[in-house]
Design a protein that fits this description.
single chain, alpha+beta, Glutaredoxin, seven-stranded mixed sheet, 5 helices, 9 strands, about 30% helix, globular
Length: about 160
């Protein structure tokens, strides 16, 4: 089960598709953060999840939020995915699976014998680094509740 509302969000340092290190603490005090964990780039539900955020990014940035997508894909795979889908926010590679484990969203058994991908999950973290919304979907084929994410952001 994903880490709960009210907890301090675990900090992380991951590389984005531009090969720059991004840390959650980079945003502390300045921005609220929405994190979308997703199992694999180029898959249907993951594409829908991130395209939904892409298409609504101006709404979230207007409310002082930064959006981050995290998966265990390599940063090279994520760079191709980002370019193909015109994502306008950072995709971060958790290739070593440490961040997914820290947020308790590491899926041990996925599909076709694949092991160790990120579960589909969403977190809203306030400027103080506290989780104000936490969701782990019941299975990878289910999208996060975008209306609940929006409601959580509007309360910040």
């Amino acid at each position: 089960m994903a880490i709960a509302v009210g907890q301090q969000a675990p900090d992380f340092k991951l590389f984005n598709t531009e090969k720059k290190e991004v840390s959650l603490s980079d945003f502390k005090g300045n921005h609220n953060v929405i994190i979308h964990f997703f199992p694999q780039a180029f898959t249907g539900v993951c594409t829908t999840q991130l395209c939904t955020m892409r298409d609504n990014l101006s709404y979230y940035t207007g409310l002082g939020c930064v959006v981050l997508g995290i998966s265990v894909d390599s940063l090279f795979t994520l760079a191709e995915f980002k370019a193909k889908q015109n994502y306008n926010f950072d995709l971060l590679s958790d290739f070593n699976k440490e961040t997914s484990a820290a947020y308790d969203v590491l899926l041990e058994n996925f599909a076709f014998g694949m092991r160790g991908v990120s579960k589909r999950a969403a977190f809203v973290i306030n400027k103080e680094g506290v989780i104000v919304y936490s969701e782990e979907t019941p299975n990878p084929g289910v999208l996060p509740d975008f209306e609940a994410i929006k409601a959580a952001v509007e309360k910040l």
